[in-house]
């Protein structure tokens, strides 16, 4: 149980780190849309709004954003559908993408015009590398040309490759906000949204209420609107895993019940003799509860030690056996929590105690006269 729960906690923590490290905890956008394209209108005075929002103690940092969907194409003809994010690298120093660059740099977006940073999975899909050209096309926006109306498109140079290890590696590309504004035929820096990252993502609802944003002017969304279903499913899966493992321990506790019942049957004579020597019913109950708790204590102690050792060396064990559950080169995330270990230990001891009550009670009902009559 310690091993399985530690792996579940590790997987949940890794998912939180990767998902909530990429997904903004709170997004604030202009409530006014352009009538023709249904696209978000730029935030005119976003710098002032950003400084105002940073005053909240739970807001760690805020980054400006331009976002749109696009088709991406390499010189080899490979196509893909991606989400463009126009960012300002000077505000993205804490971005998980910036910390997981494997080629080039995220700051190259500021130094090189019309450059793009893409994920390793997408780079493999398009068969491109640093310095090669790709074409971004906006299917929802068109311009008039001598050839007629065609989608807005622009050639970009790959200046960086990241690897987060999630679905974002093949679905998201990053460009500079100024290049995004030019691509969308906008004036200024093209900032459409502000992304708020909090010290605790799960307090987003409380933070939104405390920010006191004018909902008539701005649209406020949180990560729960986009990722809430996913985390609810993970939480439910974890709760079901706890229930299943608790039932397994409950079955193990029945072994204590059956063992003590057999002892009671075998030791009828000895119990009767002790009773004739003056041992009362409470004394008989204490004897069998103590015996059951000793067995439970040793089982919990040995199980905790073995479970903790296996948990701390799980990846080494899999490596020695040649097992790779997450693919080559990826280790299984394991998070051994003292809180969970203590919960498991006390739960197992409590089940051991409850398992001793019935056999101890049955032993206390022994009638010395009837038992010793046949001895």
Topology:
Blueprint: H1 2-22, E1 26-30, H2 46-53, E2 59-74, E3 79-87, E4 101-104, H3 108-111, E5 115-119, H4 120-126, E6 133-145, E7 148-162, E8 172-176, H5 177-183, E9 193-198, H6 204-211, E10 218-222, H7 223-266, H8 268-276, H9 281-312, H10 314-321, H11 338-364, H12 368-373
Helix pairs in contact: 1-7, 1-9, 7-9, 7-11, 9-11
Quickly count the domains: 2
User: Which overall shape is indicated by the principal axes computed on the Cα atoms?
Assistant: elongated
Distance between the termini: 46 Å
Mean pLDDT: 81
Number of DSSP strands? Answer: 10
Low-confidence stretches: none
Helix count equals 12
Order of strands side by side in the largest beta sheet?
2-3-8-5-7-6
* Category by helix and strand content: alpha+beta
Question: Helix content range of the residues, please?
Answer: 40-55%
Q: Could you tell me the radius of gyration in angstroms? A: 32 Å
Report the biggest beta sheet as strand number plus sense, adding barrel if it closes: 6 strands, mixed, barrel
Order of helices and strands: HEHEEEHEHEEEHEHEHHHHHH
Instruction: Report the β-strand fraction as a percent range.
Output: 15-25%
């Amino acid at each position: 149980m310690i091993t399985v729960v530690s792996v579940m906690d590790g997987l949940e923590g890794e998912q939180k780190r990767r998902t909530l490290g990429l997904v903004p905890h709170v997004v604030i956008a202009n409530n006014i849309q352009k009538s023709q394209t249904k696209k978000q209108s730029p935030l005119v005075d976003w710098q002032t709004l950003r400084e105002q929002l940073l005053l909240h103690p739970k807001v760690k940092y805020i980054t400006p954003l331009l976002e749109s969907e696009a088709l991406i194409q390499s010189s080899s003809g490979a196509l893909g559908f991606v989400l463009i994010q126009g960012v300002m690298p000077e505000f993205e120093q804490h971005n998980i993408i910036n910390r997981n660059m494997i080629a080039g740099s995220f700051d190259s977006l500021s130094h090189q015009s019309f450059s793009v940073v893409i994920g390793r999975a997408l780079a493999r899909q398009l068969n491109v590398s640093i310095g090669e050209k790709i074409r971004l096309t906006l299917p929802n926006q068109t311009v008039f040309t001598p050839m007629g109306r065609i989608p807005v498109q622009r050639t970009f140079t790959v200046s960086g490759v990241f690897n987060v290890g999630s679905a974002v590696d093949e679905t998201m590309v990053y460009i500079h906000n100024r290049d995004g504004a030019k691509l969308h035929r906008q004036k200024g820096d093209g900032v459409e949204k502000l992304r708020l990252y909090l010290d605790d993502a799960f307090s987003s609802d409380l933070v939104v209420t405390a920010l006191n944003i004018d909902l008539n002017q701005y649209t406020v969304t949180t990560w729960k609107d986009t990722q809430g279903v996913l985390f609810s499913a993970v939480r439910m899966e974890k709760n079901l895993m706890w229930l299943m493992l608790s039932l397994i321990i409950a079955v193990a506790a029945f072994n204590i019940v059956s063992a003590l019942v057999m002892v009671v049957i075998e030791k009828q004579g000895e119990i009767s003799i002790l009773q004739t020597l003056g041992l009362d019913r409470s004394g008989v109950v204490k004897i069998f509860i103590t015996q059951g708790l000793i067995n439970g204590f040793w089982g919990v102690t040995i199980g905790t030690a073995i479970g903790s050792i296996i948990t701390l060396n799980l990846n080494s064990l899999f490596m020695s056996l040649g097992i790779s559950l997450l693919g080559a080169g990826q280790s299984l995330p394991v998070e051994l929590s003292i809180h969970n270990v203590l919960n498991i230990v006390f739960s197992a001891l409590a089940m051991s105690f409850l398992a001793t009550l019935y056999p101890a009670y049955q032993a206390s009902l022994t009638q010395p006269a009837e038992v010793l009559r046949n001895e």
